[in-house]
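Escalation from tier 1.

The customer reports that the assembly of two entities below gives different structure tokens on two consecutive runs. Tier 1 could not reproduce it. I'm attaching the input and our single run for tier 2 to review.
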Amino acid sequence: MLACPLSWVKIAWLMVGSLSPTAGRKNLYVTENVLSLNVKGGNDNHERGIMMPTTLTEPLEPSFSLAERLAGLTSVSACYQCKKCSAGCPLTFAMDFYPDQVIRLALLGQEAQVLGCRTIWVCSSCETCTTRCPNNIDIAGVMDWLKEAAIASGQASPQPQVTRFHQSFLDTVRLAGGRLSEPLLLGLYQWRCGGTLGKLKSGALVADLKMAWELARRRRLVPRLPHRLKGVEEIKAMFKKSHLYEKSETQEKP
Amino acid sequence: MNVSYYPGCSLEGTAIDYAASIGGISSLLDLTLTELEDWNCCGATAAHSINHHLSLALPARNLALAAAAGRDVVVPCALCFNRLKVAEKALQGPEGANLGISYPGGIKVWDLLDYLTQDAYLKDLGPKVVRPLAGLKAVGYYGCMVARPPAVTDKKDSENPQNLERLLKVLGAEPLDWSFKTDCCGAGLAVARPDIIDTLVQRLYERALRAGADCLVVSCQMCQANLDMPQKRISQKFGQDYYLPVFYFTELMGLALGHPDVKKWLAGHLVDPLPLLEKIGFGF
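Tier 1 run:
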């Protein structure tokens, strides 16, 4: 074995490869205008519900319009694919694209893919990626920008519960006159999610009600009239000024 | 000291126990918290996720109120603190003019933990400890929003903050070192994707136990809710019997300083901390 130094190099290479954070996962690269996305199946113990096709190869026409629109926020073109964002991201187990892939796809102008992906919605905004990026790319900010753009584009969210929760939250603040009412938020969200019968069958509704009771008896969930602010008109004006909000409100149909 | 206080919405609701403990300890310290009049929601995760304008305008209004009050503003909620800091930066930058809010500056936005662990406060705190928390093995859990990103929060130690540990030492507890003190618990997804929370939080339980901890100490009410409320569910899901009370640092301050209402505050928890406290000799 010692006589085969090349094998040792190969083994060492494989070992390093298997330790890297993206090992055994999707590799995204661009060769001669072709975007290849290979999924080799992760060895994670976590659920991997919706997966990308095993191998997806389609012609790529790079467009820099998305990167240009993002330029006001951050420079995605500064990314040199070190993947530090993905290595430190605690949510990768629930994502379809890794954060570095979202940045790469955004840079290449693959709008349909980044606006339609699950990653932007399951990102928890923990800001680890933004904090650690060696090129100061505001990656978490890009995720937010893409969520807002995805709603504006009118396409259906791949994570409707998450989208509905955010929308219900803002609706609640507006309806309650400037502060959040948690009981109102939970009620509005549940109503919008629908599927009460399914939830009843699965036991999820009972679990939710039990939790609500546990909180209520500790006086941590008290239904009461929202506190309407003196500055309620200022708050209303803010909501009015944010045009996207009005758009999202009309399109939201559970 | 008299400072402005911005509680945030959840301290009027699910985190009312946190609010009570803050009021309790401030009465034992040289601290007057004057609630900002007519404060509004900061917009939280929802606004910055799907509505950029609101994510800046909502917290900016609170900053303007704080500036008008003319005192530094202390914020107990990690997310509110983060959003106020983001708005502060935005108001001073090119986006500021578009927000329609005038903010003269001149005040500082404080995270409550940072405020109470300033050197002068910790120095004064030591002699006030009447019941040292001897035998309490705790890991400090900071979560995300008070620390990150440092360009927003102005924190120098965002990867390895130490304020909880410094405080716990003064209170006589035994703070343990671990590598997960700023790892995300996913609280923003707790309602919409509880399955994701289970994975993230179970990892935190395991790491806390591996560090030798009997409990977690937090400075964020979303972290508290997210580590405390689903503990039974997560135990069942992973076939474990987790028992890790999740304390607010203010509750432990109240305990060490001998505040009479501590038992009332702790009654708000879903994971009852009393058995642990009794084990280390804290009877009520």
